[in-house]
């Protein structure tokens, strides 16, 4: 599976800290039903077996709705779970090595905070770029916000889709208009909500407005 710009409109990144007794797979399904166009499974604390089982469950749901599904950081989990690919940070496995393991038909996303990083990622074969944090975020305490101007420069420096990430919610997403992004990646703006489906619906509607679609 390869990604299109339409896949990037509402990129949902999971966070189990707000499950409130629900299963992660059921909450992911609610996000998809609300309008999420891409799912990334991010797990920092699960052991390998639990992480793999979770990935397999969520892959089944994403396959059901034909939604691209990638694993954050972990190439081995991506390979063994049958996920559509992996998202790699600057400190993770390099793109070419991940491509050799996963194959040409898998999705590889890359984090880039500078034009140089974005251009390098595209040259190495990344399918899309994630850039941020565009706003202050509660999920990563050590991030320095990426300016709107630098986001615009990153978007114009590459031909692959760029998704903005970091502290994005329904109240600030309109500030990203005309930046050149293909969509937004959202964590708490979806998964922290008491009504995940409604939050995803409202976010996607607003993103489509700022993209002029």
Provide tags for this entry.
eight-stranded parallel barrel; alpha/beta
Describe this structure in words.
The protein is an alpha/beta fold. The protein is built from eight helices and eight strands; from the N terminus they run E-H-E-H-E-H-E-H-E-H-E-H-E-E-H-H. An eight-stranded parallel β-barrel has the order 1-2-3-4-5-6-7-8, surrounded by seven helices. Helix 4 links the parallel strand 4 and strand 5. The protein is globular. It starts with 9 loop residues before the first strand and ends with a helix.
Question: How is the secondary structure organized here?
Answer:
Blueprint: E1 10-13, H1 24-34, E2 38-41, H2 48-65, E3 69-72, H3 75-81, E4 85-88, H4 95-102, E5 107-111, H5 115-123, E6 128-132, H6 148-157, E7 162-165, E8 183-186, H7 188-191, H8 196-210
Parallel strand pairs: 1-2, 1-8, 2-3, 3-4, 4-5, 5-6, 6-7, 7-8
Described by the principal axes of the CA atoms, the overall outline is globular
**Structural class, from helix and strand content?**
alpha/beta
Number of helical regions? 8
| Residues in helix, % | 25-40%
Oligomer designation: single chain
